[in-house]
Design brief:
- With 318 residues, the protein is of the alpha/beta class.
- It is built from 15 helices and 10 strands.
- It is elongated and about 95 Å long.
């Protein structure tokens, strides 16, 4: 359809004046306009003629939406939105008002964008975070995972109902059983509920700390982000090559801040006693049992320990 603006600009041409009259008749004969008149008989045609442009756009965008080509190819003037007409009485005068309204696809996109903005990742494959989550599929992958998965579901439901506590989860199990996937699912579900979250892949994070330790501003911003987010996940803790500075001054500072404030979550191949042994040893100073115990005092009391049993699913999307 040609634009109403083009028609109005050409009113001096007799042929186009006839065309505009035909267009007006076509507009008033459209089922959407007839329905509007039937619902609001107080709006006579003389009043509606003052809003020909809005009516034209309303009808055109309604047709576009009825044959939606998808959000990326939306032909409406304001992509992802359509013209919605409302009849309101202001100061005793009834008139027609147009408002741009987001369509269902736009609303869904905005919700997903908001979720993504609430989640940050450090060195974790974005495909894991952006993948679809099907609860039936999660439960059905391996019957031995059911107990652990139910506990994750229960935790999510509890937070949605009663809010966050300082208690997190320590999820441990053998390689490829889906620990990272389940933590990303938890992060996604609680981001939907409005919580911010960060997931950190520990081996790469500890390695990268060596390069940013001389950049005080970047280091502070990173540590502050991990301290302040609602949900923090240390993924694959125990697989990193620790040095004393990263353990005591970075990891220790983050956990010391969060332990009575916000929940921290962990995935690991180690049970807690194995993690304590790992944290007691650094590449520089060797074994330091006291320092490992000191860090564990900021982890163990603030987590529910969940073992995850099952087959290696690495080839199946985990």
């Amino acid at each position: 359809m040609e634009s109403m603006g083009e028609v109005l600009r050409s009113m001096n041409n007799p042929a186009l004046r006839r065309r505009s009259r035909d267009l007006e008749q076509q507009l008033f004969g459209d089922p959407l306009v007839k329905q509007l008149q039937a619902e609001h008989p107080e709006l006579d045609e003389s009043r509606l003629r003052l809003h020909l442009s809005e009516l034209y756009q309303y009808v055109g965008e309604s047709r576009n939406c009825a044959n939606c080509p998808g959000l990326e190819n939306c032909p409406n003037n304001f992509p992802g939105h359509y013209s919605k007409l409302a009849v309101e009485t202001v100061n005793g005068k009834t008139d027609l008002y147009e408002r741009k309204t987001p369509c269902n696809l736009q609303v869904a996109k905005e919700m997903q964008d908001n979720i993504k903005r609430r989640i940050r990742s450090f060195y974790v494959d974005e495909r894991v975070l952006n993948g679809g989550y099907d609860e039936i599929d999660i439960m059905g992958k391996d019957p031995r995972r059911v107990t652990a998965v139910n506990k994750i579901f229960d935790y999510i439901a509890e937070v949605k109902e009663n809010g966050l506590t300082s208690k997190g989860i320590y999820l441990h199990g053998s390689f490829g059983t889906g620990k990272t996937f389940l933590m990303c699912y938890l992060l996604h579900e609680l981001a939907v509920a409005g919580y911010s979250g960060v997931i950190v892949y520990m081996p790469d994070f500890i390695e990268d700390l060596k390069s940013i330790m001389t950049d005080g501003q970047k280091l502070k911003e990173t540590v502050d982000t991990l301290k302040s987010c609602d949900l923090l996940i240390f993924d694959d803790i125990g697989a990193e090559n620790l040095n004393p500075w990263a353990r005591d001054h970075v990891l220790g500072a983050i956990l010391n801040y969060r332990m009575n404030r916000k929940p921290t979550f962990y995935t690991s191949n180690y049970p807690l006693d194995g993690l304590e042994k790992h944290l007691s040893f650094t590449s520089k100073d060797g074994e330091e049992v006291y320092k490992g115990q000191r860090l564990m005092n900021r982890i163990a009391p603030f987590v529910d320990v969940i073992p995850l049993h099952g087959d290696n699913q690495r080839g199946a999307g985990y």
